[in-house]
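User: Sequence in, structure out. Go.
Assistant: Echoing your sequence, followed by the structure tokens.
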Amino acid sequence: LATIAAPAIRLADEGFPLGRHLADSLAAAPDMNILFQAENRRPALAEALRAWAATDGEAFRTGWVAQDFVDAAQRTNGSLSMADLAAYAVKTRAPLRGSFGERTVLTMPPPSSGGIALLQLLGAVSGGTTIHCEVEAAKHAMADRSAYGGDPDFARVDVPALLAPLRLESMQRDCGETTFSPEHYANPVAAPDDHGTLHISVMDAEGWAVALTTTVNTAFGSHVIATRSGIVLNNEMDDFATRRGQPNAFGLVQGESNVVQPGKRPLSSMTPTVVVGADGRPELAVGGSGGPFIITATWQVLQNVLVKGMTAQAAVEAPRWHHQWMPNAALVEAAFGGADELRGHGHDVRVVEKPFSAVQVVVRTPSGFDAASDPRKGGKPAWERGPQ
């Protein structure tokens, strides 16, 4: 763990350049500037990460860092206790497995909705269809998310039915000349027009691949800072249906299967995905940040690489669209070229200037690795000992 944590500890100790994305986030949340010392140093975080590495992670469950979390929560009228943290256990689940031609797609299972929606889109509208039909399929997938998504330990999430050929065929067929009202896809609830998620994709020369998504939910989470460690507490409770029938921070309406219960894990949109080639070796690792935008963004990048043959950088840079069923609007980036086509099919199209997702992808090609970090958030691929 000390080896794994070393780069983060070094950056926390020595500081790092303030990129545009972080600068904009801090400008919108000036109370969070207190996290950083000169040159963006975070020595308290470095101390906490050293404790994590030295205790096999226990410092975050039973040690001083855990106590720091509890003190911060209780200071702000929260009910978190040391017993809660000590009792928490990681839940290991088998990934969802789907096919895409001769490739195998491994992606995130419930309680994330991302894997189901991604496999629905890959099975229903990947290649040879219109943008309109792609958006229609996304509306179905996101309506399914609201109606059926949740923690499978507490609610029945019928994954086989959602991914059955009959369901995918119905999504293919249900693309008429014009789009439909929200009631066509599921029972709607009015939602307003409304992030702190990170994704990394890694591959190595020995054939290993990792797609890892982690989050504090919205930007700077709850805005509550644990004093000694300098760690920001998340506001992940917003991923539950904390207010029945009401939208969360991303404008998503959550179903009854995602109501708050003790011991329950919330519905999410995380979509870390590894694609395995016909030869049995990982061919691609991908995922993203951006709340529900993760799902459509990850699918579009996969499309760009596997169907359109784009390079990793071109696939990530290509302008994107998003639709999450509610609110009933197609969001498109300013450079997206299909806005008029969508309007012609009756979609309410809204152009957004602020990037709404960031995807990281690495692809194994016959000539070596091809990797890209989304320019919407900055950064670049990191190579160890040069490209393989």
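User: And one key feature?
Assistant: The two ends are 25 Å apart (CA to CA).
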